[in-house]
Amino acid sequence: MTATVGEPGTTLGAHNLAALSDAHFATTGDYESLLFEGKTYSTGELHDRGQRFAAGLRSIGVEPGDRVVVLMMNTPEVFVSYNAIWRAGAVVTPVLFLISPPELHHILEHSGAKAAILTPELVPLLQSALDGLDLTMIVVGDAPEGTIPFTSLELDEPSEIVPRGDDDLAALLYTGGTTGRSKGVMLTHRGLYSAGESLHRHASDSDIRFTRSLLPLPLSHAYGLMLVCASMHSEERGFSVMQRWFDAASWVSLVEEHKLEVSAMVPSMMTMVLALPIEEHDLSSMQMFGSGAAPLPMALREEVQRRLGVEVFEGYGLTEASAGVTANKRGANKPGTVGKPLPGVTVTIQDEEGNVLPTGEEGEVCVQSPGVMKGYWNDPEASDFALRGGWLHTGDVGRFDEDGFLTIVDRLKDLIIRGGFNVYPRDVEEVLLEHPDVTQAACVGKPDVESGEEVAAAVALRPGAQVTPEELIEFAKGRLAKYKYPREVRILDAVPLTSVGKTDRKAVRALFAGA
């Protein structure tokens, strides 16, 4: 579909996300689709608000290509904002609200954001991060002096779609910055459209349909953004309950009350749910978890299936590939793997010279798909390195089995080299998690004069557990090669996690370095 709208000589791309939103609404019609904190929202209401808010953004000077930061917990206004920003021809720049002021300042400055949409409790955070930057603040709810109320920008007549081409930016997402300053990942309309379509096709390739879902994941993360894009390809009328932020007890209550069937989760969320007396609740409606964003330990998967009766489908993706690369599905769900490539995605395992390795051999996971990023914002050197040879080099180590299922071994940068031998942290963590008293484990390399690096691990225990670090070392020693087992184990109240539930290895390394 190509239509001429707005300025002469500009066209609306066939994969424009605002046009996709319009087409989705025209297909499914107006119905109650979202429950949030006791209030139900219809598709017609949210769509109309997005059209009006787009006009409001244009009225305050937001122009095509401008970056607009979305800094909110999950609220219906996130959906409204995304639709409106795309409709205004601007670029969605989602930021997770748990960010620190210096990290936020870097994103605001590096992206050159023109405006930010946020909730009142986050105004002090944004103000502390400005440090001389000029930014328009749009506040959902009670707007402090000097900011613009969100509702005041929903009063204009609905805006037409400002034309943007398929290869124009739709989103600028910042990586977690685990190896330095976070980089801006440039995702296009075509890329997000295709990634959403790919996930939808994958999910639809089954005779079983789940229409009642629970959304605990932050929409400001690549995983959440991909779910939004996938939902716009669906022709079914789904109903979702959304949490402002994940809370395990609330999650259990919502499943029980609304008979929800499917939930996208990360492993740390599953651990928190299992820590509750879930047997006291009727959670029989819940049938499926989609797991991503962090490795799923086998012991955790088995406990979820045993205690909840839920089938877990693990997938793999990264921001640079619009969050979607591989996934398991019904009828083709192999535990311990992250599934097969999604429709339209090509994955190879390559060595350091770029040679494709045969089945069973470990190497770097490399990806080609329409959803692969355009590059890193204002960083041509890093872009060229990541996209060398026409492939996205993920930095993840993996292997394919004889059935075409991908296993992610670990991150290349997390590899521990002890006395010349390679140790993948996940191998050590999986063994420690087999111990009945261990609920979390994180393995890192600790600088060592003799070995170069020594294997060290931090763990968290079940309440009341009495196991000692020495006992855990002996437990691992009996199950791992001599060069692999941890020489030091520290017991923590909780293993440090990033804001999206991944192990914070930077924090764990600092712990063992004495910081």
What is the topological layout?
Layout: E1 3-4, E2 11-12, H1 17-28, E3 32-36, E4 39-42, H2 43-59, E5 67-71, H3 76-87, E6 91-94, H4 101-111, E7 115-118, H5 123-130, E8 136-139, E9 148-149, E10 169-174, E11 184-188, H6 189-204, E12 212-215, H7 222-231, E13 239-242, H8 248-258, E14 262-265, H9 267-274, E15 288-291, H10 298-308, E16 311-316, E17 326-327, E18 340-341, E19 346-350, E20 363-368, E21 375-376, H11 380-386, E22 392-400, E23 406-411, E24 416-418, E25 421-423, H12 425-432, E26 438-448, E27 452-461, H13 469-477, E28 488-492, H14 505-512
Parallel strand pairs: 3-13, 5-6, 5-7, 7-8, 8-9, 12-13, 12-14, 14-15, 15-16, 27-28
Antiparallel strand pairs: 1-2, 3-4, 10-11, 11-21, 16-17, 17-18, 19-20, 20-22, 22-23, 24-25, 26-27
Helix pairs in contact: 1-3, 2-3, 4-5, 6-7, 8-9, 9-10
Describe the structure.
- The chain is 29% helix and 25% strand.
- The termini are far apart.
- Among the domains are: 168 residues, Rossmann fold, CATH 3.40.50.12780; 98 residues, 2-Layer Sandwich (GMP Synthetase, Chain A, domain 3), CATH 3.30.300.
- It is α/β, with parallel strands linked by helices.
- Helix 2 packs across helix 3, helix 4 crosses helix 5 and helix 8 crosses helix 9.
- It is built from 14 helices and 28 strands.
- The N terminus is likely disordered.
- The radius of gyration is 23 Å and the shape is globular.
- A nine-stranded mixed β-sheet has the order 4-3-13-12-14-15-16-17-18. Strands 6-5-7-8-9 form a five-stranded parallel β-sheet, with helices on one face.
